[in-house]
Specification:
5-stranded parallel β-sheet; CheY-like_superfamily; Arc Repressor Mutant, subunit A; 11 helices; Bact_response_regulator; Stage 0 sporulation protein A homolog; 4-stranded mixed β-sheet; Sig_transdc_resp-reg_receiver; single chain; elongated; Rossmann fold; alpha/beta; phosphoprotein
Length: 266
């Protein structure tokens, strides 16, 4: 792992580096007294997480965080400060963590566990930001029909709410007429969805009843669901790109975008 620590106080900087090294032996830790040096490092090598002091002379930690994210959008930012007053601003720029000085080894471990604890093996995971995909044991699920994959995306978007076959058909085929042949084709799509999930032993997420479909949200780890819970990692991953391949998801994307930025309008 590669960490970046920035603080204009040499003793605090050394303490952070020593603490990180003790928590994760073997990690590469780059330390900087000047924000400009931190930016130079970020341009040259990949950084997993940056621990930033907020009150620094030439550039605040908040400003540095914003510029680091321009260079590396996926970098985790953990602010290290002696003041609680910056917490709201830290949230607005999608900070992953917030440590108050003086910090302990346990404090640092907690923040890192919060970030990397999510890397535990997950049986079924849905990705909605940056394009829809569903993974089972880390492998993408393959579908014989693209519409079967889209149907699953729509059900995940509904977060467990049942949809009738007529509702789902209207969404997947916006301009098509509701004909006998259309209904027959839709049944094939549902069958393909069921078979694709069964092949990877993930059929447990799909609920079928007479004339309706739903998924079981509790059986899926989903970035969208985590975003709604305020999970900073999920919030950090969203870039106005919720299921961009589907036109029906545009309204939901607008809702998510407003949810993410509502603090700026209050």
């Amino acid at each position: 792992m590669h960490f970046l620590a920035v603080d204009d106080e040499i003793f605090m900087l050394e303490e952070m580096a020593e603490t990180l090294q003790s928590v994760i032996p073997g990690a590469e830790i780059c330390t900087c007294l000047k924000p400009g040096d931190a930016l130079d490092i970020a341009r040259k090598k990949q950084i997993d997480a940056a621990f930033l002091d907020i009150e620094m002379g030439s550039m605040t930690g908040l400003e540095l965080a914003a510029r680091l994210k321009e260079i590396q959008p996926d970098i985790h930012i953990i602010f290290v400060t002696g003041h609680e007053k910056y917490a709201v601003q830290a949230f607005q720029i999608h900070a992953t963590g917030y440590l108050l000085k003086p910090f302990s080894q346990e404090d640092v471990m907690r923040e890192l566990t919060f970030i990397y604890g999510e890397q535990k093996k997950v049986h079924i995971r849905a990705q909605t930001f940056g394009g829809f995909e569903i993974f089972v044991d880390g492998q993408p699920v393959k579908f014989s029909r693209a519409k079967a994959k889209e149907l699953l995306a729509f059900l995940i978007d509904r977060k467990g709410t049942s949809v009738t076959t007529a509702e789902a058909y209207a969404v997947l085929f916006e301009n098509a007429e509701d004909t006998v042949s259309g209904k027959s084709y839709f049944r094939n799509i549902v069958r393909d969805l069921k078979n694709s999930l069964k092949t990877v032993h993930a059929e447990e997420i799909l609920l079928r009843s007479f004339n309706s479909l739903a998924i079981v949200p509790d059986k899926i780890e989903c970035d969208y669901y985590q975003f709604l819970k305020g999970d900073p990692i999920a919030v950090n991953q969203y870039r106005n790109d919720y299921m961009p391949q589907y036109s029906w998801a545009e309204f939901r994307n607008a809702q998510i975008y407003f949810h993410e930025n509502k603090n700026f309008y209050q």
